[in-house]
Amino acid sequence: MSFDLVFFGGTGDLTWRKLMPALFQAFRHGKLPPGARILSVARDEQSDAQYRQWLHERFREVEGAKRPSDEEFERFAALVHYRRMDLSQAEHYQHLRQWLDERRADTVVFYLATSPHLFTQICEQLGAAGLNHERVRVVLEKPLGHDLASAQQINRVVRSVFDETQAFRIDHYLGKPSVQNLMALRFGNALFEPLWRRESIANIQITLAESLGVGTRGPFYDGTGALRDMIQNHALQLLTMIAMEPPASNDADAIRDEKLKVLRALKPFSPEAVARDVVRGQYRAGNVDGQGVPGYLDEAKIPADSCTETFVALKAEIQNWRWAGVPFYLRTGKRLAARDAQIVVNFRQVPHAIFPGPQRANRLIIKLQPEDGLELELLAAKGSGHGEALAPVKLDLDFDRAFSATNRVGAYERLLLDAIAGKLNLFVRSDEQEQAWRWVEPILNAWAASEEPPRPYTAGSWGPAAASAMVARDGFTWPEEV
């Protein structure tokens, strides 16, 4: 199958840091279909050779074994081309169409790795140039909009140009192997399904923690914040996958229908609930990995009076039969104690304790990064004496060891290959995405109406103390506090 993949924003950070390295890995693994052409478009005036040299220099920053040798890069670079485009000029889209029509590939994928405010303009121009035919797919990078109204406007324009089956709204967390294994854990095994409900589970915690600060993304991040950047998309997508009912099949819409039901069942936030069940924070100077780091307000290009949140913790409730009364705690933040993404399923205590001493409840830990695996915490007798208290033990499955880390497909690699193949299972449908905005918008509105700034927390900590207090109020703790 021949295909053309066009990156709008071909010189941007996302393209050279994530997308091109992911495509190279697909090339190295022999996963790219034959007859591939990769075209980057941007405003810079460059030749193919100049762009390939620029990309080669960027690839030197790729980590470890993923970095190509010079010979590997040369073979990959032969697939890569470059065109200068002014995205506001209709004739430039006609020139793009002429380039694509040179051979009429079986599939054409447009990847919009640009600022979201350009999405509607690009889609409208593609439609006007006739580049929305049945062989075309368009990939939309997050964040898709700034609020519900802007997201709906983008989706209206996208739907006016492309069929819903042609629109691939990407959330790279859904491409992580551990997230795919979450689906396998739940729906490929009989072990957990009888326990996957309110009678057996006390609470579920989703943590997406970063030790890095905003870096060079200060202006973008200050206009976005942690709620929009991580909760509205990544965290809520993980919540839907952990809480959804079994779909009737592995069909994309069957899966996305069940995810949408979860989003619609989330209890809406009132202003009082936001004050009680949502904590927003902003990091101050501190130490991360033994190094002193500045506070958020001291980062480059951040206004001195910014109230943008770099941390969010909240309590969510799903109002349905399976999950009624089970709190879901979500948190994300920058400059936290560690880079750590995980889902912790805390089971209820046994109804009657017959062994002496404190007994910790069972936990299932689904590790997303930096490790990738499952950990089940059980209690067992030490075996060194009669009547002795139980001790915790762990059953640990490391997916990288089990399935060979060198051959495992990364998130962007998997999603790019799925977009080329036309598989929508791991992409977000427009109604899902809009419902997620509908749920978080009352939080944004409450913050906008409040004069209270984000709570400060020291860089290198696990966030404001109020986040621990929120969970403790229900009798629970975060994983690092166990």
From TrEMBL:
* Entry binding sites for NADP(+): R43, D86, L87, K142
Q: What is the protein name stated in its UniProt record? A: Glucose-6-phosphate 1-dehydrogenase
Catalytic reaction annotation: D-glucose 6-phosphate + NADP(+) = 6-phospho-D-glucono-1,5-lactone + NADPH + H(+)
One annotated GO biological process: glucose metabolic process
Q: In which pathway does it act?
A: Carbohydrate degradation; pentose phosphate pathway; D-ribulose 5-phosphate from D-glucose 6-phosphate (oxidative stage): step 1/3
Report which superkingdom the organism of origin falls in: Bacteria
UniProt family annotation: Belongs to the glucose-6-phosphate dehydrogenase family.
| Keyword set includes Cell membrane | no
GO MF: glucose-6-phosphate dehydrogenase activity; NADP binding
Q: Which residues cross the membrane?
A: none
The active site consists of: H234 (proton acceptor)
Name all Glucose-6-phosphate dehydrogenase NAD-binding domain ranges: 6-181
**What does the UniProt function comment say about this protein?**
Catalyzes the oxidation of glucose 6-phosphate to 6-phosphogluconolactone.
**Glucose-6-phosphate dehydrogenase C-terminal domain ranges (all copies):** 183-478
